[in-house]
Specification:
alpha/beta; 12 helices; globular
Amino acid sequence: MSQLSAEPASFSPEFERYVDPAGHEFQFVRVRHENSRGLGIHFSAFFGAWGNKKRTRENFKGYFHRLRMLGTCPDHDWLFLCDTYGFIENGTYYTGKAGDLFVERAMLAIIAEEMRHRDHGYDQVVTVGSSMGGTGALTVGLHLGVAGVVTVCPHIDLDICALQCTKYPEVAFACPDGDPGSPTNFGITRRIGMLLDRTSPEHPPPALFVQSVADDAGVHHEQVLPLVDRWRQHGGKVYLDVRPTGGHTSDFAPRALLLDAIDRMLEREPIDPGTYQRDPRFQGQPSHLTRGEVIIQSVREKLTLRRRLKTVKGALHIRSTRTRPD
């Protein structure tokens, strides 16, 4: 399995740009490995508190979450996508602005261009993401009928995210009338459910792995559990990994766990969430930290993010492609 693979001696991702017909620019990263199998498509989440600062947003548009964590695995090729539009240029949940789903269309166009150069179909593709990245992974995974979707604490129903998860401005930006709570905007806010309803037991949705935390307010009980029930009703396989406490976090989804889940999706092998919870190989960070430990962890995360963003900023000038959809 991939989690046992060593990182390659050199890691040289290709930073590129896509420009849509309206002139919107999107950065993405392509990572290819010799003799790899399948494609993992990762969708970045919101920046978080440090990345939301004005200076960070201005200097580091295009932060690619988990780029080194996953991209260094040589068993698969990778495509890292990012949404830098929105209320504070930190994401629209991979939708767009005022009902125009230009971000979603751009993601699909970038992926379509990538697939044109591959010798396999979407049955060898897995989409991956957490939080807002989970929204993108679910949306695109349903659109394309991929082999599997791997998500961590995904945001699913955007009206609930707006009203219960402090994301009102981000969701309002995407809605035609700016009202995330209105049923008239379900085409935006409940898009994942609408795409899921296009599937059936005869034509089921992709296999789904979702890790969720029981005390993730506004997400676990309100969004994840209803999605799991509907996914199964439509004939899809679901592997649900529930952790009791921790809130809205990806601390329980280390590299080994994500790579194992991706591998199993591509190989059509079952996933045992209990193994992820018991096996030391798949253990993430502890759910209960002292205040001092929280501060130390926060500083480390900021330093790591700063190093990654510096790498991205320095590499973005290397290559700029202007690819347009057919």
